[in-house]
Amino acid sequence: MTHATPATLSRGASAPRPGTASGTRARRAARRRRALQWIAVHALGLAAAAFFVLPFVFVFLTAVMSDNQALTRDLWPHTWQWSNFRTVWDTPGFLTWWRNTLVYAVAGTALTVVSSLPVAYALAKFRFPGRNLVMMLVISTMMLPPQVIIIPMYLFWTKQMGMDGTLWPLIIPMAFGDAFTIFLLRQFLLTVPKEYTEAAKVDGCGEVRTLLTVVVPMIKPAIAAVALFQFFYCWNDYFGPQIYASSNPAAWTLSYGLESFKGAHHTNWNLTMAATVLVMAPVIVVFFFAQKAFIEGVTLTGVKG
User: Fold this and answer.
1) Domains identified in the chain, total number
2) DSSP helix/strand/coil, 244
3) Which residues cross the membrane (predicted)?
4) Tens-digit pLDDT profile for residues 261-293
5) Fewer CB within 10 Å of terminal CB in the chain, N or C?
6) End-to-end CA distance of the chain
7) Is 75 contained in some domain?
8) CA separation for the pair 119, 178 (Å, rounded)
9) Do residues 58 and 95 both lie within one domain?
10) Cα(223)–Cα(110) distance, integer angstroms
């Protein structure tokens, strides 16, 4: 018969068993250490996220405040005035500005992608004398500010073509390609192995069919990225509508109409912020649903010169 000695009893009592209070404290301490390590690693990212998110939170909270509370020390709404959005939406002209912006953004994006893709494909896959020179000329146009050529372009579209007070002077030029879009698509096309295009030609495909059936499905992330870039540019464009459409309120876009709305409601900051939310919301929604393709396209573009 074995008898327990005091030393054995002491060792058995000192070892924490699963489920005991000391074991629970050890697990809590381990979780706390992991949480602190995660916070330390992601602190910079959290700070940057807060820096970018807080202005949107401020705009949204102000948009649902009453007129008396807006821009006071009270940052949280006393009563949530959701009717502010309805008031802005029913403002005369706001729906027209929204429709004009949507037409401008969608048409401009489609024309830019359709016209730039064949040019980028030719610069990436065709071998012809002066190809690098042509690419340098395309890139050089990106360094030319639009303000430099705005006067002759304005005189051409308004005096010669009679398109003053419309958005057509902004939409039509996009049918002739965009230097930034051509550059990004060309860089992505350089990463497509030539074996795919050569195999398609062996099967009897012409250049157009090869581009549409073989190349385009492979570069969907790049197309999505440049399409989003162009859509955001058109949606937020203020300079172009101010130059060509300012004389006709029926052709105003949201960016230009918002300035007019702000001037008419400069004391109603809650309505101004509600209008700002309605202007930003479509862009945020589009980016939220397309961010995967956008990030993938931007990441993979430019990996080969």
Assistant:
1) 2
2) helix
3) 35-61, 102-124, 133-155, 167-189, 210-233, 269-290
4) 877 767 778 888 888 888 888 888 888 877 776
5) N
6) 84
7) no
8) 10
9) no
10) 11
In the predicted model, what is the mean pLDDT of residues 50-75?
84
Tell me: do 246 and 121 sit in the same domain: yes
Q: What token pair was written down for 173?
A: 């030029």
Query: The domain that contains 166 carries what CATH number?
Result: 1.10.3720.10
Using CA atoms, how far residue 290 sits from 116, 184, 228, 285, 286, in Å, is 21, 18, 8, 9, 6
* pTM as predicted: 0.77
**70 found inside a domain:** no
29-43 confidence digits (pLDDT tens): 888 888 888 877 778
Tell whether 134 and 40 lie within a shared domain: no
Unique residue bearing structure tokens 């009897």: 204
Query: Could you please report the per-residue DSSP string of 214-242?
Result: IIHHHTHHHHHHHHHHHHHHHHH--HHHH
Q: Taking every pair of C-alpha atoms in the chain, what is the biggest distance, in angstroms?
A: 115
Residue finishing a domain among 63, 79, 100: 63
Is the distance from CB of 177 to CB of 112 less than 8 angstroms? yes
Assigned token pair, 78: 């006393």
